[in-house]
TrEMBL record:
Gene that encodes the chain: Dere\GG14708
Name the UniProt record assigns to this protein: Augmin complex subunit wac
A Gene Ontology cellular-component term: meiotic spindle
GO MF: microtubule binding
Example GO BP: cell division
Species in which this protein is naturally found: Drosophila erecta
Highest rank taxon of the organism: Eukaryota
Amino acid sequence: MQNLKIQEEVNSLMGLGQHYDEQLKLASLELGDFSDDDLALLDKCVQYYSLLHIHDFNLNYLRDFYYAKKRECIENRQTAVQQRVELQRILSSIDEVTRDVVMLERFKGAAEERLIPDIVVVQRNSQQLATKQALLDRQKTLTIPKDFNIESVIDKVDSLEQR
């Protein structure tokens, strides 16, 4: 009984093989026309068909698979292009920031060159305060006569300047 089932299955597979050979001949193809790589792919395909118990070969499935792979390839290219554009944008912003950093470093260097140390500032302030105090002290000791008229002195200076 078991042998009978196996014999029937072998006969049906042989008939299916002959059917496919006839289909290939109708398309003017012979198995010898395929390269070794193509034959290896066909062998792999046959193995998958036998493992999955698929006996009807439908070209629509192959076309669907091809178009799915083609779509995936196009999407991958599109993603790569988008990533290249994004990378270019990031690189240009990095260049811009680098230029800004260089400019700020030059500014910082110039500012540090012009910077006056704290000790010098304190010394100048103390000198100015001492000079101010000395002038105030001289002003206090200066006695101005009561009959002094500043306007007459200004008029005399103006007349001297005009000559």
